[in-house]
Design a protein that fits this description.
- There is one protein chain.
- The chain is α/β, with parallel strands linked by helices and about 375 residues long.
- It folds into 2 domains: about 160 residues, Rossmann fold (3-Layer(aba) Sandwich), CATH 3.40.50; about 160 residues, Dihydrodipicolinate Reductase, domain 2 (2-Layer Sandwich), CATH 3.30.360.10.
- The chain contains 11 helices and 19 strands.
- It has a 9-stranded mixed β-sheet with strand order 17-16-15-14-8-13-12-9-18. A 6-stranded parallel β-sheet has the order 4-3-2-5-6-7, sandwiched between helices.
- β14 and β15 form a beta hairpin.
- α4 runs parallel beside α5 and α5 packs antiparallel against α10.
- The chain starts with a strand and ends in a 5-residue tail after the last helix.
Length: about 375
């Protein structure tokens, strides 16, 4: 099996890393809110295909320059590139940044295809640079507190888990939803990374998967913005479900859908021989973790692990500090789980995985003031 490794050690405490951001779409605002409050990084430059958008973002950030993507990637002063482009462009931008000797942290999924993700992983290893990727929501107090309960034996030996996300799709609110319905999109690659990565965090790596998929229609209609009423072709399955066989022996069931409306099912449940856990929505960093131990009743756990009050970008701060919990190896394994589920859905056969990953270390309960100053200081 392929096992990813980090090629650089931890950053010296007190060091400030100059980062460049490529892609300034919808999600970038959340990253900026986190990164601008942190002392361990400085946003030195931004780039976007829309030059005016880059200029507007740079104007809000002290000392930041608006550059073309090529200029940003070639800038010798930028040590880490944050890749927030659409999935179809993840590999192209990441490979170019790696070729310039830069560390890369990217939005999920790691790439639109497993082959591209593996190329990125191999290129980073050959160049001696680091690769990391979202989702970093799993580093918040929600998933980390649930992970701590499992590690402490509160549910005994984990046996099974379930993960479910149901919606009617993003075209009702997103003005440019095309990429959600092309290769690299769909509910599995859009929302699946949060749930699949959480399951690996909680129960460890996966060895085999079995999947099934369908799509309710071949077109979607944009419901808002300047393109309202325009039809978008659907090129991927919009409902997928499957079984993950974990190396630990536990089994997880996963359902991701753009073909429903709403669900009252818990986002994630984990069951062991001595208890059960309800895990909050992994698309968010916090939430109520509930535990039912044998012979007891449901109780809400106080946060016991994770970055407190964090937002998107905390994984990058963890990454530049040398912790690497949101690693390229984790993102690669999660992507293979999802692409294998899609392959199984198409073939009707159980699919074996070629990658694996170690469960990263638990995030100690880290107050916001600490991680804003220097992520890793309390580890």
């Amino acid at each position: 099996m392929t096992r990813g490794t980090m090629t650089r050690g931890a950053v010296t405490p007190g060091t400030v890393i100059d980062i460049g951001i490529v892609g300034l779409g919808f999600i970038s605002r959340q990253y900026l809110d986190t990164l601008l409050s942190a002392e361990s990084v400085r946003i030195a430059a931004v780039a976007d295909l829309d030059a005016s958008r880059a200029q507007a973002a740079a104007a809000e950030i002290p000392g930041c320059r608006a550059l073309t993507t090529g200029e940003l990637l070639a800038d010798p002063g930028i040590g880490t590139v944050l890749n927030l482009t659409i999935p179809a462009a993840h590999a192209e931008v990441a490979l170019a940044a790696i070729a310039h000797g830069k560390d890369v942290f990217g939005e999920k999924p790691l790439a639109a295809t497993l082959a591209d993700a593996q190329r990125m992983t191999d290129a980073a290893a050959a160049a001696g640079v680091r690769l990391g990727g979202a989702p970093d929501t799993v580093l918040g107090t929600g998933v980390q507190t649930a992970r701590a309960a499992i590690d402490d034996g509160r549910i005994g030996r984990p046996v099974s888990a379930s993960a479910m996300w149901i919606s009617a799709g993003h075209e009702s609110w997103h003005p440019h939803p095309d990429f959600y319905y092309r290769e690299g999109g769909g509910p599995l690659l859009d929302m699946g990374p949060y749930y699949v990565t959480s399951l690996v965090q909680l129960l460890g790596p996966v060895t085999h998967v079995s999947g099934a998929g369908s799509r309710s229609r071949d077109e979607r209609v944009i419901g808002s913005g300047p393109r309202a009423g325009e039809r978008v072709a659907v090129e991927v399955d919009t409902h997928l479900t499957g079984i993950l066989h974990h190396a630990s022996g536990a089994l997880s069931t996963v359902t991701m859908s753009f073909d429903g409306v709403q669900s009252t099912t818990a986002p994630i449940e984990v069951h062991g021989v001595e208890g059960s856990l309800i895990v909050p929505d992994p698309n968010y960093f916090e939430g109520e973790v509930r535990l039912h131990e044998r012979g007891g009743s449901w109780e809400t756990l106080e946060p016991s692990a994770g970055y407190v009050g964090s937002g998107r970008g905390i994984g990058l701060l963890d990454f530049v500090a040398g912790e690497g919990r949101a690693s390229g190896a984790m993102a690669l394994h999660a992507l293979e789980i999802m692409t294998a589920l899609a392959a199984s859905a198409a073939s009707g056969r159980r699919e074996a995985l070629s990658t694996t990953v170690d469960r990263p270390s638990l995030v100690p309960l880290t107050p916001a003031a600490t991680w804003r100053g220097a992520v890793g200081a309390s580890a």
